[in-house]
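Collaborator request log, item 7. Partner lab (contact: R.S.) asked for a structural prediction of DNA polymerase IV to inform their binding assays.
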Amino acid sequence: MGIEDCTILHLDMDAFFASVEVRDDPSLQGLPVVVGGAGNHGVVAAASYPARARGISSAMPMAIARRRAPDLVIVPPRIDVYREVSARVMDLLREVTPAIEQISVDEAFLDVAGARRLFGPPDRIAQRLRSRIREELDLPSSVGGSVSRAVAKIASARAKPDGMLIVPAEQTASFLAPLPVGVISGIGPKAQQALERLGVRTVGQLRDVPASALRRAVGPQAPMIATLAAGEDRTGLGTRVRDRSVGTERTYEHDLVDPAEVRRRLTVMADEVSRSLRRSDLAARAVSVKLRAPDGTTITRSATMDQPTASGERLREHVVALWDREVPRMPAVRLAGVRAERLQETSSHPTATELTGRGTGWGGLESAMDRARDRFGSESLTRGSTLEPREG
Ligand code: DCP
Ligand code: MG
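Returned to partner:
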């Protein structure tokens, strides 16, 4: 027991979009910088830490952000640049171990158990990752480490900005005890209110809630949450994949009012998600679409697929079907997201070729396109009608 066993690391870039902008224009260093649309209906996508110190956070209307910081610097987003930086971050992580699971544009889990012989204990590996990202990309990142993925993620959030926090197994319960229950990813605003009514605000207090009451407050996740609160969760990478998901979401600088535009953005996100799945050797049995209106109304709809898949083609089909048939129309869309759910590992499944694509051809083709995109950038290849599926 000790730091040696904390092989699950969670790395998350700090104020990702904003940090890239500050890097590329050093005169912005130390200023309240946000990335987002400057117009009347603009929204904050990312806020630098100096901006956060003024009470500015992501998804906040730009008008409010301006009021909080009259000297606010608003930078329009450069999504292609962030995507490129994201790919380079993930490449740096893969230099340490292939056991990585990217869960959004700027964060990933790693299991460094196998990398210890080469690179030393997990805390040294975490520092190495952070300094590589600093040296190669000139960007700040934070890393959390633990014996469990849930605790590693909570730790990286506590380490921010530009920090590292490794929580040994025997210290997990005391580390979690004073934190608000909301740090646990299975506890959303509704469950938080229900727990509040029981007088429960911290993870430590959660431990004293009887199982039946906990179940009423937080639903079927109760046993998992109780184990976590007790500091006994050991869920790492590659286990219980079905409980996990891989997704991406975007807050738009201008509300999207054209349904065709929303549809197009959803298909692009479906492609991004399918690519993350393939990179982590995962396939999804379900996919969901999330949309938020300017007034905060949020709608989520999901579809189950007959076969697990990591194919962009398949995910796009289902996402478009959800948008066309299931999602009630909202006059304007401020945030859109796509998430792959009910995951399983392709490598551990007997019909891996079926899982990675449509039939055998698409899997190979899409993986080849991934590799080409990694080397030449996302614009280098688009699927043309002349490009036929072939044996991969
Ligand atoms: N993002 C977005 N809309 C959201 C959430 C995120 O456009 N609703 C974008 C902007 C963020 C990036 O994704 O920079 C990464 O999201 P994070 O949640 O990791 O937030 P940050 O990296 O900005 O900050 P932190 O330092 O808290 O990780
Ligand atoms: Mg981040």
